[in-house]
Amino acid sequence: MGKSAMTARLPKSKGTEMATVYEVKDCMRKVKHLVLPERNRRIVEEFMTILGMREEFDRHEVPIPNKVVMYGPPGTGKTLTAFHVAASLELPLIVVRLDSLIHSHLGETGSNIRKIFDYARTVPCVLFLDEFDAVARTRESGDEVKEMARAVNTLLQCLDEFGDVSIFMAATNLATELDPAIWRRFDTRMTYQLPDEQDRRHYIRLLIGEFGCAQEAEAEACRLLCGCSFADIEQIVLKAKRKAIIERRPLDAAHIGLSYREYAPTPTEVRVHA
Ligand SMILES: Nc1ncnc2c1ncn2[C@@H]1O[C@H](COP(=O)(O)OP(=O)(O)O)[C@@H](O)[C@H]1O
Ligand SMILES: [Mg+2]
């Protein structure tokens, strides 16, 4: 199925393609270490099960879900989940480039949105729009109010006309700024949070892997990295591993502590793209 995405032309804006295509094997490679909290894991599993039972759902005239919104702080696995869904469904992932979508010319943003949706609803794929809030802001707020209101209206139409060939996934750190009308269009919603104790331990264990006498390092990382996102944990543990490699010594708690202080994890209240 991935083949068709390769042959169909991606729409362009300002001379460049509006999205990046990741083939199934790229997606599989990316998601090796995904840690999903229990609730989201169940939601994703059910989603997959339903998509594997299309005929039954047709027979009962129950529409299949195919519009997913994910929200929560940066570095908690929203983008990674899109890769995971694409890999599991063996569909290419089409990641929209937000900067090329949003245009200062009147009506151009809306027409770009239409182009990318027209593409995605005919070519089986997972269409992923990150930082979704940038397009789907409430119609009352923002500077270029009229232009954005038009874009939101186009987006609403595109979501309604999306059909069931492809999957649409959107991610945002700012759920409260989404237009309520847009919000209602999604059939599947997932909240992301900073890892709890159990998920943190699990993730740290995956990252450290077979690395010398790692138990002490693991305990220290679990203690110290409380309140960090998965993305921060990853960076800090990798930094610590590099230190250990340079010193030709097994990873220990001191490597973790030093890396943590050097890295200075991102405060979650500051919005950055992770
Ligand atoms: N839940 C997770 N499980 C495993 N790794 C994660 C998770 N969340 C984040 N990461 C790591 O951090 C990187 C950035 O995460 P990403 O999925 O882009 O976060 P978000 O989209 O929520 O900002 C990932 O590529 C991965 O290496
Ligand atoms: Mg992301």
Listed once per kind, the bound small molecules are: adenosine-5'-diphosphate, magnesium ion
Spatial gap, N to C terminus: 30 Å
**CATH second-level architecture of the largest domain:** 3-Layer(aba) Sandwich
Low-confidence segments: 1-6, 269-274
SSE class: alpha/beta
When the domains are counted, the total is 2
- Integer average pLDDT: 87
Largest sheet: 6 strands, mixed
**CATH class call of the largest domain:** Alpha Beta
- The number of helical segments is 13
Quick one: CATH superfamily of the largest domain?
P-loop containing nucleotide triphosphate hydrolases
* Radius of gyration using CA atoms only: 21 Å
Residues in β-strands, percent: 5-15%
Q: Widest sheet: strand order?
A: 3-5-6-7-4-8
Percentage of residues assigned to helices: 40-55%
Number of DSSP strand runs: 8
SSE succession: HEEEHHHEHEHHEHEHEHHHH
Shape: globular
Per the CATH scheme, the topology name of the largest domain is Rossmann fold
Family: Belongs to the AAA ATPase family.
Organism: Saccharibacillus brassicae
InterPro entries: 26S_Proteasome_ATPase (IPR050221), AAA+_ATPase (IPR003593), ATPase_AAA_core (IPR003959), P-loop_NTPase (IPR027417)
Domain AAA+ ATPase: 64-196
Would you give an account of this structure?
The chain is of the alpha/beta class. It has two domains: 2-191, 3-Layer(aba) Sandwich (Rossmann fold), CATH 3.40.50; 197-263, Helicase, Ruva Protein, domain 3. The chain contains 13 helices and eight strands. The strands form two sheets. Strands 3-5-6-7-4-8 form a six-stranded mixed beta sheet, sandwiched between helices. Strands 1-2 form a two-stranded antiparallel ribbon. Strand 6 (126-129), helix 8 (145-160) and strand 7 form a beta-alpha-beta unit. Helix 7 (108-122) runs parallel beside helix 8 (145-160), helix 10 (197-208) packs parallel to helix 12 (230-246) and helix 11 (215-224) runs parallel beside helix 13. It is globular and about 55 Å long. The two termini are 30 Å apart. Mean pLDDT is 87; it is low at 1-6 and 269-274.
